[in-house]
Amino acid sequence: MEKADLSHHILSRFNADLERVRSNVLQMGGLVEEQLAQAVNALVMGDSAAAELVARNDHRVNAMEVSIDEDCNRILATRAPTAGDLRLIVAIIKAITDLERIGDEAEKIGYIGSRLATMERPADRYREIKHLGRLVEEMVHDALDSLARLDADAAVAVAKRDRLVDEEYEALQRQCITFMMEDPRSIRRALDVLWVGRAIERIGDHAKNICEYVIYMVHGKDVRHVKLEDVEEQLRARANRDE
Amino acid sequence: MKLIESRMSETTWQIALRLTLLTSSAVLVGLIVGHIAAALAIVFAGYLFFQLRNLLILDRWVRFRSVLSPPDIGGPWGDVIAVIARIYRRKQFHKQRVVALLREFRRLTDGMPDGALLLGEHNELLWFNYKAERWLHLRRKRDFGIRIENLVRYPAFVQYLEHGDYTQSVTVALSGEQEQWLSFHMVRAEGSSQRLLIIRDMTREMRMEAMRKDFVANASHELRSPLTVISGYLDALADDAALDKMWREPLEEMRRQSERMRTLVEELLQLSRLESVRGPHEEQRVDVPGLLALLRKEVLAHEHHPEIRLHIDSHACLMGSEAELQSVFTNLISNAVKYTPETGTVDIRWWHDEQGAHLSVIDTGIGISQEHLPRLTERFYRVDQGRSRKLGGFGLGLSIVKHALQRHGATLTISSEEGKGSNFTCHFQITRVVHESPRTLEADNLFVMK
């Protein structure tokens, strides 16, 4: 297992800077995770106050993005990092954009959640949304874990789970269409549920992106738009060669 | 030291003796043969070869001492080997003991009901037990050296880790299939850069707490409606002129008791409302001096009361919920009035400094003995059951004060001496204080006009 070694710089200030930026990204991730969990939870529980709170707290995520972005720019400008360090910074700049988007989607879920709370709750109590939300929450969590551990194998495994989320979203779509056909009065609610499902599905895609950055950071390989099986194959071949 | 010297001299003597014997025999043989130099050279070469062989044997054994048994060589080399073998055996023995102890310790900590993590100087993970591994989804060995806040990213926890007060613990709801609450508590050892993080499962406690809150809220809500009906009819009956005189007295008593019950239910509802909502939602400027002046006049309107003195040393206002702050001040002042005889005094003081704003209510009443102070803010806790009931208290007032203050990020300190009086002081943080032009007079006038 290749491990990005952050302790080889003679300039210990540089080390500390890199380490702090990475830590900050993960903390931003923690905040985003909490926002997402609370947004889904508030929607499922029909708690409009909690849902609004999520929507109002999105500015904290945005503020963190801006500050991390500034840190990265400063490091690029003053330290001119190369090789692994450069990959780390590039990956972080990309990852925070995705995290910020996840925050935006959570905000959206919060808004819709506070609106849905005023409507009659369906018989299944948003079971599908809860399930989908749980899947994606775990994806985000594990993607961030792989970033913390710089574990490319785990990142590939997480990225693969995005397919499951897509399938679940398909199922949710079909279910909503059936509801709308059966009872036109439920169209408004079904549309909102569909929007939430869409937001959650997008979060899954962003989590997948973060996994791809982790693979890039560890192996220096750009795996966007490449089939995951091929990525796995390549990584395995690389590991064999290294041995 | 003596022993070492004697051992050393023994070996030295042995070597000296051998060398002397060797040299003299070589000289003897040389004399017989006629070539002293050649004989000396041959003998010493043989001796050197012998020493080098022993050295090689020793080297081989020292390298592979864990699998080879010590070689059997006599003389000083044998002594050296014996000494090394003894040191090695002793080290092995200690190592085994330490390893066994460590294994035992690990087994014990894995059986612990709490999670435990050892953190280094930069919060990096040094060690954790099985419970911590399972609860936080950590991986043994793999995660050692990684900073804990990178893996345990709950914002409340990170906040605690960075700026927290380590005398307190922080409770965090885990995300996951099942509802789980964990409380984290950092323990710092004196003079060590390492820290111990203790994790406890609080799920049961949190569930019980939620159940209790729900129960109190629901029960008091359900009690309120029938009570309204009863007191309504009682009022109607009391106004009825045709009522028999015999019933007047019992009816009055019934009205008094139903009023008492209504107050109790109201206070319970207020308390459960304070508990259930997180953080003050409505933020407005509260004119504390004006409010205090109003409250004082309210007390003065009653028949029997001690002397009340108001000391307004600051015109600072507070940001917060007016209704909640009013109930805090009302409870504190009415408590002081309740427990102070008519000859005593109650001092209300409002001031501010660089830490924040403070409100003191100091009375010269009956006071509270030391053992009751820590439990005073628990609900239904009363110092003297009979006396409080006579005065019409339920033991909820200070609970309400505590919760309302908590929601404003303020603290309450209580000091008291039995028989002399008590001092209740609220401390508000500087961030909540706003300075405004005085409105005290205006408030006074308002009251007079009413």
Q: Please give the order of strands in the largest beta sheet of chain B.
A: 2-1-5-4-3
- The chain-level mean pLDDT of chain B equals 83
CATH topology description of the largest domain in chain B: Heat Shock Protein 90
Helix content range of the residues of chain B, please? 40-55%
Largest sheet of chain B: 5 strands, antiparallel
* Number of structural units classed as domains of chain A: 1
What is the oligomer described by this structure? heterodimer
Please state the CA-atom Rg of chain B, rounded to the nearest Å. 42 Å
Q: N- to C-terminal separation of chain A?
A: 10 Å
Query: Under the CATH scheme, which class of chain A?
Result: Mainly Alpha
User: Which spans of chain A have pLDDT < 50 for at least 5 consecutive residues?
Assistant: 1-8
Task: Give the CATH architecture of the largest domain in chain B.
Answer: 2-Layer Sandwich
Gross morphology of chain B: elongated
Helix content of chain A: over 70%
Radius of gyration of chain A: 20 Å
Structural class of chain A comes to mainly alpha
Number of strands of chain B: 13
Structural class of chain B: alpha+beta
Q: pLDDT under 50 segments of chain B (min length 5)?
A: 438-450
Write the layout of secondary structure elements.
The complex is a heterodimer of chains A (243) and B (450).
Chain A: H1 12-45, H2 48-56, H3 58-79, H4 83-116, H5 127-149, H6 152-160, H7 162-182, H8 187-219, H9 228-242
Helix pairs in contact in A: 1-2, 1-3, 1-4, 1-5, 2-4, 3-4, 4-8, 5-6, 5-7, 5-8, 6-8, 6-9, 7-8
Chain B: H1 2-33, H2 36-63, H3 75-110, E1 115-119, E2 125-128, H4 130-135, H5 148-151, H6 155-163, E3 170-174, E4 180-188, E5 195-201, H7 203-239, H8 248-276, E6 284-286, H9 288-300, E7 307-312, E8 316-320, H10 322-338, E9 345-352, E10 356-363, H11 385-391, H12 397-407, E11 411-417, E12 421-429, E13 433-435, H13 440-449
Helix pairs in contact in B: 1-2, 7-8, 8-12, 9-10, 9-13, 10-12
